[in-house]
């Protein structure tokens, strides 16, 4: 018998794959192939092929359990109010958007069948037919109009109210067609609609604890700050999800989260600390690290309207004091790319590669600190584990400051309550920003004069005008030039230091399959539950 495979068909391949799924041993599989006329050496090739096919083919069934790193009693199933990754994961499980971003960052249709425009100002959205909410109500244009309009209602408290404000007109043309009118042209609308906050909810919804969406899972349990459980939506308009149920909760302590994975209590431990990677890697083939570099960053914020940030030379000094290379090497354990103090990452088409990071220069830093008159003072810096790797970054910056006579008093505060009590409020503090798909969204949320998350209270009339101009241009190269200049302005004028773009690392069991990178962040852009499966 030679090494060639003879009389072997696709049906035989399927038979081997099914046997693998049933748990057949390698010896049993080889005997099966010998009986089918396959030589031993060729049988190894068949097994490898079948094994790869099984690994890539979704398997139905199982209970998926995963843990994020932060939650609170303010956890919500109202997409408009979602602010933590925990909220995003749950909203992605229970609801759908009009569009979603694929792994290349390209908007794809979800609840929308098509989205068309002739002038980037008036957009026509055709909805998919046959989509129903968990309570059985069919999806209609009225649901879309309601979902989008509520972002404009101040009483809702939408986290993207400033972004949604550009949508000035909504009209249900018929049951399956919506017309959206913008105040000014914006070619990014299909991408904007892929944001987690723009999930579609049923017309007139006031009780969001039920999670009544069109998504892959039906809410069974929702306990804010504790956990949520979703069961498979048997009437889902897509082919998924693959698992029967999905439980999600938070374990704030990194070591405890990793130990829960290693002990088999969970299948995915989200956003683990670089220090935990070695422990996971030492466990052999049973666990995998899923890495994504998509624009997430932890930054140091100095409010320009408070002391000492109101002194321009203090801000300049801090920018020269931060050793970005050391932060990537030590604080992030190499899991990141050096940043240039603006939020548009190298993964984004509009990133400005000509804007070089500020060089680490303690002498220049000392010169500016002397001009600001802050040497000899004790300057509080608020840091928390709530912002990824902020404590390690703070220690590195503090050590550099001490060498030139600047005392930075790093005050560690608990994760619980950090975002409500310190972020955006303390004169000098750390933040952590999840990836956003466009420069317009980043700048609108973080740097426009009236931005809701304006971390350093940066205000520039010129910047605001450029933001509107870039948003409305249909000329791609012109937009790129404007965004490049805006990145330079942020890096040089704002009170935010972005030392690195962090590679997010989710640790998973090798039994969890189908997880891919996504530009909206780790955990597959927080939508992993719908797409992954558990190997039998």
Can you lay out the helices and strands and say which pair or pack?
Elements: H1 10-22, H2 26-35, H3 40-56, E1 63-68, H4 85-94, E2 99-101, E3 107-109, E4 112-117, E5 122-127, H5 141-149, H6 161-164, E6 167-174, E7 177-182, H7 189-192, E8 217-223, E9 227-232, E10 245-250, H8 254-262, E11 268-269, H9 274-281, E12 287-293, E13 297-302, H10 312-321, H11 324-331, E14 336-338, H12 362-372, E15 378-383, H13 390-403, E16 407-412, H14 418-421, E17 428-433, H15 439-446, H16 461-472, H17 476-493, E18 496-497, E19 500-509, E20 512-513, H18 522-525, H19 528-531, E21 533-534
Parallel strand pairs: 1-10, 1-11, 15-16
Antiparallel strand pairs: 2-3, 4-5, 5-7, 6-7, 8-9, 9-10, 11-19, 12-19, 13-17, 13-18, 14-19, 20-21
Helix pairs in contact: 1-3, 2-3, 10-12, 11-13, 16-17
Question: Can you tag this structure with a few keywords?
Answer:
single chain; 536 residues; alpha+beta; D-Maltodextrin-Binding Protein, domain 2; Dipeptide-binding Protein, domain 1; 4 domains; eight-stranded mixed β-sheet; four-stranded antiparallel β-sheet; 19 helices; globular
Account of the protein in words:
The structure is a single chain. This protein is α+β, with helices and mostly antiparallel strands. The protein has helices at 10-22, 26-35, 40-56, 85-94, 141-149, 161-164, 189-192, 254-262, 274-281, 312-321, 324-331, 362-372, 390-403, 418-421, 439-446, 461-472, 476-493, 522-525, 528-531; strands spanning 63-68, 99-101, 107-109, 112-117, 122-127, 167-174, 177-182, 217-223, 227-232, 245-250, 268-269, 287-293, 297-302, 336-338, 378-383, 407-412, 428-433, 496-497, 500-509, 512-513, 533-534. Helix 13 (390-403) links the parallel strand 15 (378-383) and strand 16. It is globular and about 75 Å long.
